[in-house]
Specification:
By secondary structure, the protein is of the alpha/beta class. The protein contains 12 helices and 10 strands. The strands form 2 sheets. The chain has a 5-stranded mixed sheet with strand order 3-2-1-4-5, with helices on both faces. It has a 5-stranded mixed sheet with strand order 8-7-6-9-10, sandwiched between helices. Helix 3 (91-108) links the parallel strand 4 (81-87) and strand 5 (112-116). Helix 6 packs parallel to helix 8. The two termini are 34 Å apart. The chain binds 5'-O-[(R)-(carboxyoxy)(hydroxy)phosphoryl]adenosine and zinc ion. 5'-O-[(R)-(carboxyoxy)(hydroxy)phosphoryl]adenosine is lined by residues 17, 142-144, 170-171, 173-174, 185-188, 191, 278-280, 282-283, 310-311.
Length: 349
Amino acid sequence: MTRSSNQPLVIGIETSCDELGVAFVRGHELLSDVVASSVAEHARFGGVVPEVASRAHVESLQATLEAARAEAEVTWSDVDAVAVTAGPGLVGALVVGVAAAQGLSLALQRPLYGVNHLAAHVAVDRLVHGDLPQPALALLVSGGHSSLLRVDDVTADVTPLGKTLDDAAGEAFDKVARLLGLPFPGGPAIDAMAREGDPASIDFPRGLLHDEKHRHDFSFSGVKTAVSRWLRAQEQSGHAVSVADVAAAFQESVADVLSVKAIRACRDEGIEHLIVGGGVAANSRLRVMVEERAAEHGIEVRIPPPRLCTDNGAMVASLGAAIVERGLPPSSRVLAADSSLPVTEVLLV
Ligand code: KG4
Ligand code: ZN
């Protein structure tokens, strides 16, 4: 049975990294959201292997499309628009989603929207908290990116204020987890382990926290190296290591820097709304710290639930729906995936 609504029905397809996500959105309503993750296949390598990810996407594509359609209780001919992540991401993985979306768009004779993965991480919040406040400041922290963005209009006007100079925040979690012998992906493992530890037990450095030249930029390779050195020193001196304490102290350093810089950017830009997105936004300590610091400055915070923070099709469908609502012209049906698509390009032409 088709749900009655006069809002366009948008399918969103995400394949920029190790997750294949397909979702259906009508207006602000998420009808279905199915994710086929290949994360287990990467675990033994300690990081995402691009070729393995693309292959896994090809293998689970048909079943995932069909599962999302069935869960949304719609037919293929109900679809009004097709949205897909066009970049940034792993090129071989992106191509799988883009080719699938092109095929659907052609077969259904519906417009195709190739959208930016980072803007989609911001736009997903529409599904939870309604239309995005404008302007908003977005802190985007994932395995591939750490950025501060000024979002005047998530469909068309996104300005980068700062980014990481080296590792992404999620990458730092993954690398430190590896040093600690915790499984991949490291973020959830460190988050869980940190609950048992003392964040004040070790004072790890706060990258670029007081660097005026890089006021809105991040750097996480220093804290990763500090953890590595600290572990080696403990080992050499024969002291036992509390993995929980290291996890908690490392997490504290990252959450501290991210939350201070996000609030600072809001204040510099005179913006009262902060949206936090990307896989690291699922971090329990970061969520608490951002809320606490924002409250001190009268800033309203929107953070989607953890499931919508990590990569999924809902974010793509949500951005697609916002673009359709705005009446922007669709992308060319022959659009090419762009692995380094800048965030200023929300919609590929
Ligand atoms: O957004 P995402 O799913 O994929 C990318 O676009 O990269 O983010 C994945 C990243 C991984 O590095 C993972 O370790 C991290 O998000 N992550 C977390 C947590 N859950 C996922 N980091 C810290 N705490 C978490 N709870
Ligand atoms: Zn992502």
